[in-house]
Amino acid sequence: MTDQISVVVPVYNEEHNIALLYDRVVRVLNGMDLSYEIIFINDGSSDRSLEMIRQLSVRDTCVKFIDFSRNFGHQIAVSAGLDVCSGQHVVIIDSDLQDPPELITDLLNRKREGFEVVYAKRRSRQGESVLKKATARSFYRLLQRITNVPIPVDTGDFRIIDRSVVEVLKQMPEQEKFLRGQIAWAGFRQTYIEYDRDSRNAGKTGYTFRKMFRLALDGITGFSNLPLKFATITGFLVSGIAFLMALYALYSRFIIKEYVPGWTSLMLTILFLGGVQLISIGIIGEYISRLGNNIRKRPLYVVSDTNISTFSSSALGKQEH
Ligand code: UDP
Ligand code: MG
Q: Which ligand is nearest to the CA of 16?
């Protein structure tokens, strides 16, 4: 038998995009010498997305689906797809057509030149707010500076990965998924191709600012301990300054005997110290809350329906912890 390619598609309220996405993906896959499966993960959509996916799965047996019991988030939806996919080559692609399916051919060709990971790097992004582009840009650069893992800049999850990488990902038990980081961490031979990111076909973004912020924090806390060190370093720095100020206070009190009540400096000091302490506690809290999540070992997601038969043995087994 020829190799198989799996396409993993997370879906959250994409009723107007699913049919078109399916058509474009299938057209591309049919042009290849591979058998394929397309796995849709319905991440608690409140529109007719699930219905559309079911219709496709009736028409085409290569269409598989997993229906989550609620919205668990994009990264977890993709992880569920990776848990059950069986292809030698695995593509992760958004369902809003911001990632052009036609690029899968190029991704696969590049992979066949001898790479385990080929990610699609955004040369430009269309139809996204200035704020989103700016925050994304600075986040990717910050992350690259403070981690030891070479996480590529300006890259989403659109990529092709080899089965060997999927098997590594399945062994990574963390609750906070940041797949780009985890894939970079996995190593192997990785490369990229560049593309211009389209604007979304229909509907609106499922990534609220809140979700983006959470993803950013997951990326940072999952792959860097620098923020914790930052808390320690600023703590020492501020203590040093406070010590000098104490010396000065004693000096003015006892030597030059000039001790007009310094309300301003007092307030500034208190506010400054309070601020630094709160920031440090906050940073520590972010890490501790993630520790807590991982100790609880809850299942990553809950499936309410699926047409994948192997599912119960492979992924549901994970919930037995
Ligand atoms: N998505 C998801 N769960 C969510 C939010 C988004 O599965 O909670 C999916 C969404 O359907 C899309 C992909 O993740 O296929 C990227 O989301 P979106 O296009 O909304 O994000 P953006 O491109 O605006 O960053
Ligand atoms: Mg999008």
A: 1
Start-end of H helices in the chain:
18-30, 49-59, 74-84, 103-112, 130-146, 163-170, 179-186, 209-223, 226-250, 263-296, 311-314
Structure tokens of 47? 């529109």
> Tokens 């601020």 label which residue?
275
The pLDDT confidence band at residue 260, using thresholds 50, 70 and 90, is: low
b/e per residue, 81-94, with b = 16+ CB within 10 A? bbbbbebebbbbbb
The Å distance, Cα 204 to ligand 2 centre, comes to 8
Query: Dihedrals φ, ψ of 182, to 5°?
Result: -65, -40
pLDDT at 275: 77
CA of 207 to the centre of ligand 1 (A): 6
Chain segment 134-173, per-residue pLDDT in tens: 888 888 888 888 888 888 888 889 999 999 999 999 998 8
